[in-house]
């Protein structure tokens, strides 16, 4: 047995499915997940010493690549002073101030440990502020494993929510309405009928969780205007897009400003840190000022905050975002050139430092479009890239991520490998 097979067999004995997050299992593509032991810059190293160019980047956080020297040095200095105090630290204020300088709509911020906690808390807050219960989400958007948000649309879309996970009471899901992404007519009709009962729309303003799907400007504006005119709040879940789609988030890029923003991934610099924030008026509903309870033993802990601050510094002082964005543009234009030349049924959607290669002639605007991709071809693509030293997320429904460490050589290798793949397949 190979090292990897042994590791997976042992893991399956004690960990459910051998993994601690379902997407890490290779259910959609088949085969065993690769066990990693280290990372450096754009590369991850497997237990059997195979080295891969990494476009997973832990699903987004590693904007400056693996084991960034600044992050590691700052973490080293922090860890020898203690790991958690259960008391405020000055660094939490610094991180909040820095985040606010990029996201001015987050006038006040609360740190939590995961994106799921951020969205769950934002939902509770929106219900308390509006004194309403109904939440609107869009098909294909993922907001973490919050009970009320683990709901997918039936084909009717506007029907009552149907849980995608067992174990969620109907009493919870029937407070969630699921609509189609980018469908302004459906959204408008829904708000005409039920808008006055809506606490909030929660959305990925650029969706990364059905692969990268861009919103139309009309759709984003409709979400903003309809919530405004019906006394509901707009929550942008920028857990993935914050510091990934744009330094100032999708809200900065399109100038559509939400009431509450959720962040995660990049703001923790590779450690567990997430946040939600908005105007003073909204955020002051939270305890200890207001009556909305939300707390966390390790929230804002010194290690996660140190890594987050180091990452913010890298973005501010060393242009890591801009470098990663430039490399993404080079990669995506190179891929697009090959696709166009051979007129292949492949579409690449990209924004900032994220992209998805869809095996579909395009354009793709919503979950229904993505579900029509050639999933067999995706599987071939995944395994071809992997066997040629490039690791990508094991599902068509995921974004790929680029770091500032993905240098020209890495991009060229990726382009050459993609060329070999299409030459073999088409
Ligand atoms: N929101 C979005 C947009 C995400 O992409 C994710 C995770 O991928 C989450 C929320 C949940 O974050 P976490 O996995 O940190 O709980």
Number of helices: 14
Largest sheet: 7 strands, mixed
Shape: globular
Which molecules other than protein and nucleic acid are bound? pyridoxal-5'-phosphate
Unreliable segments (pLDDT under 50, ≥5 consecutive)?
153-161
Overall SS class? alpha/beta
- The helical percent reads 25-40%
- Mean of the pLDDT scores? 95
List how many beta strands DSSP finds.
16
- What is the CA-based Rg, rounded? 21 Å
What is the CA-CA span between the terminal residues? Answer: 34 Å
> What string gives the helices and strands in order?
HEEEHHEHEEEHEHEHEHEEHHHEEHHEEH
Query: Order of strands across the widest beta sheet?
Result: 4-12-11-10-9-5-8
Strand content: 15-25%
Description:
- The strands form 4 sheets. A 7-stranded mixed sheet has the order 4-12-11-10-9-5-8, sandwiched between helices. It has a 4-stranded mixed sheet with strand order 1-2-3-15. A 3-stranded antiparallel sheet has the order 13-14-16, covered by helices on one side.
- The protein has 14 helices and 16 strands.
- The protein is of the alpha/beta class.
- The protein is globular, with a radius of gyration of 21 Å.
- The two termini are 34 Å apart.
- Mean pLDDT is 95; it is low at 153-161.
- It binds pyridoxal-5'-phosphate.
- Residues 59, 114-116, 119, 142-144, 204, 208-209, 237, 239-240, 264, 274 line the site of pyridoxal-5'-phosphate.
